[in-house]
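Journal club prep — side note

Before the paper discussion, L.F. wants everyone to see what a predicted structure for a comparable chain looks like in token form. Sequence:
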Amino acid sequence: MYSRLSGYDDVNDAEPLSQDPTFRLIGSEKIWERGAALTSRLQSFETELLAQDENLAGLDAINRELIERAESGDVAQRVVLDMDSTEIPVYGQQEHSAYNGHFESTAYHPLLLFNRNGDCLAAELRPGNVHSAEGWEELLLPEIERQQKLDKEVVFRADAAFARPEIYEALEERGAKYAIRIPANDSLELDIAQLLTRPVGRPSHRPVISYKSFLYQAASWKKARRVVAKVEFHFGELFPRIGFIVTNLETDSRAVARFYNKRGTAEQWIKEGKQAVKMTRLSCHRFRSNEVRLWLSVIAYNLEKLWRRLTLPRRIGNWSLTSLQQRLVKTGGRLVKHARHHWLLLAKGHLTRQRFDSMLRMTAALPRPDG
């Protein structure tokens, strides 16, 4: 876990890291002379021990407990959930890998669920050729029920891949709000025909944006639902940009569109996970072993996100996870061992004494978990 936080994405890096004094201290002082986890031990740990059903479920439980501890201090009464899928290319004949026509690559196609802070609440590794919304209920519905038990209002956002009537119905049955983009069609565009005419006069250099809210019922829907349309005319573009959002939010159309547009941050969180903790490094042959590697990366990602949000000074709290790794974690240092103390001497390029002390104070001030 800590090797992933430090940017070492594969067990091939374990050989030199096993001799690193800091990693030895993280593990146990009992193995100080023998080194920390070696390559062979880590390899069997990932592909055999953690791949067992109960241990794989335990990784999910560890991640859930980690997020719950962070949520204990959150007094907000509204929880926003973002769901998205992504591509993880594979190179070889990994089990259940398949060609995905949308991404135009042979890949896995995992599904991820985030909260508004960017914490990854749940993840599922899937074969490469499944639909983007496949398995949504296994990730989304338990999280909605958990949040509602805490008396939280739940709002769900997703792109057009999740525009399914069964999703709308499940959310409505549980009293959850949602804003989901739906693909355009002739019937929807007919309802906003008056907005599709370019304004008369010289084109504005600033986008001209119009909104409209109306009731719409597709053939596969059991009832009519509110749809918010957004039409944008941009300078130099012949045709307008059109977007439709199906929602049960009761705010005005502009607020609905602005709320939905924040869904794009989920793509940035996925990008951070791929770059910082190497979620894409699924190089095992067996599918179950790659599930383990994905979960280890998710937990490492959440640890780094919580570190940035809860214990970093405000001045550097907006650094990317990659910048934190390169400037604060993978920094030069020397460990001096004495009979009673260990002295960690660090280079003060970015990790200054004041910054290090500030992180320690903020970490010590965090509420301690029960037990």
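L.F.'s comment for the group: The radius of gyration is 24 Å. Keep this in mind when we get to the figures.
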